[in-house]
Amino acid sequence: MAYFLGVDIGGTKTHLLLADEEGRVVGFGASGPGNPDSVGHDGLASAFLEAYRIASESSGIEKSQIESIGLGVAGYDWPEDLDGILKAVGTLGFQADIAVVNDTVLGILAGTEEGWGVAVVSGTGCNAWGWTRDRKKVGRVTGAGTLMGEGAGASELLAKTLQAIAHSWTLRGPKTVLAELFVERVGARSVEDFLAGVVRRRYRLDGSMALLVFQAAQDGDEVALDLLHWAGRELGELANAVIKQIGIEDQEFDVILVGSMYNGSPILREEMEKKVRSLAPRVRLKRLRVPPVLGAVILGMEKAGISITPQIRENLEKSLKAEGFLNGAPV
pTM, whole model, 2 decimals? Predict the structure, then answer.
């Protein structure tokens, strides 16, 4: 029996699955962040190895039994990044063939029936990738967020929110309850103290604070509502950029939505769908309902020349659920 390894290496966690050639998941391991941009290549290797150790102990599958590996890596954004990733994985003692993609691509592999289309991530950050049915054309954005004018994950939404609070304080913009919410959240004495503290780095914003924007929008704050409409349009623009690059505007295909931001408000999806349908009217927007690491296993199996049938997909999803792997894990 041949076994296949799928690894989703992210900025906050690493998930790893072991599956057999029929798509039955036999092992799971989780560890910390492995994005080489934040933890280096040694950190990537350590996260991979720790997750494999856990999966191997529970399954009994040894490295020599693994035929191929599918690896989705946050931080694999440019061709020049590949060599360092392969060298890091090469130190771990696997003899298997390996396929590496940006972790956004795992959403396409896991969320579409035929393994092609577009995925748009909106979590802590944002990204978008896509490819054609034959995978000969690949489209993507930079994944660099605010630096390259790309939104919107939580980080980009928070940057816009901070600007809105500053504009409210200086009377450039309308009043917003967001000012009070953020002052309370960080324990600042006033809006002035909050803004000064952010500038002087006494107060730091993190992704969880995006929930305050959703809260304010739900309560009817106009500034917060405008921010969410902006975020949805931005996510639609990311999808449209990829769609135009690979030339599938007239086709019927899926755009897979990946990440926790989509859970915050239906406004994101509504605005995004309007934007994307203006370019590609036959598009289907689908929320990813399985862990992205499932796409990494599929990538590994494809690397070995296995055609991913509906039965294999069904086996992967059923065995994940039956064995309790990743119960409650965010997608």
Answer: 0.92
